[in-house]
Amino acid sequence: MDFGNAETWGAAIYFWIVPAVLGDAIFPPVPSEMVVITGGALSAEGRANLFLIGLLAASASWAGDVVVFQLFKRRLSHVLDRWRWGRKVHHGIHEAIAKAGRSSTYGTIIGARFIPGGRLATSAAAGIADVSSGGFNLCAGLGAVLWATWLVGLGYFTGSATRLPFWASSLIGVAAGLVIGAVVGVIATRRRGSRSPVDEPGEPAP
């Protein structure tokens, strides 16, 4: 695959979005934002369909959030501890909640996905707090649409404004997104420091 070829990426981007965004639901280091922004930048060059990119990103984001929410709502998180990789994921979820805060309010469910680790932390915390499935699904869906629209739009705007190769536009978009996300994160996580409601792997449940 020629990574600098927009035509090649335009054909492959649809297959990257769903696994990247789903993976990001449990493992935040997965660069889903970069993939979605790249889709927007490719759309600016006419190499991808803007609305399909947004639809795939929003659908995968919603589905990933629901999986994490149900995992913790049904108290199935201990299943992760059966495998070494699962214990690492479980520990990562604990740290994500500790850093991003443990709020499970509907507003947080919608908005926390814009800060690093916020999507995972909020979905897990909402499941633990036994938020209603209907309310969570609605807010996660709205948040997913806003998140996908923001990232696709960011990629499209940078691609249209700079007229640089799609990969350069994507990097600019990611940098801008990180700066804005960091600012939002500072504002949204002022009340950090509360202990995570997720049990550490290996610790007895309270």
Question: TL;DR?
Answer:
The protein has helices at 6-26, 32-44, 50-73, 84-100, 106-111, 118-128, 133-162, 166-188. With 206 residues, it is mainly α.
| Overall geometry | elongated
Helix percent band: over 70%
Strand content: under 5%
State the end-to-end distance: 51 Å
Count of the separate structural domains: 1
Q: How many individual β-strands?
A: 0
Q: How can the largest sheet be summarized?
A: none
Helices, by number, come to 8
Radius of gyration of CA atoms, rounded to a whole number:
17 Å
The average pLDDT value, as a whole number, equals 75
Quaternary status: single chain
Q: What is the string of helix and strand elements?
A: HHHHHHHH
Unreliable residue stretches = 191-206
Q: Which class of secondary structure composition applies to the elements?
A: mainly alpha
Descriptive notes:
Helix 1 packs parallel to helix 3. It is built from 8 helices and no strands. The N and C termini lie far apart (51 Å). The protein has one domain. The chain is mostly helical and 206 residues long. The chain is elongated.
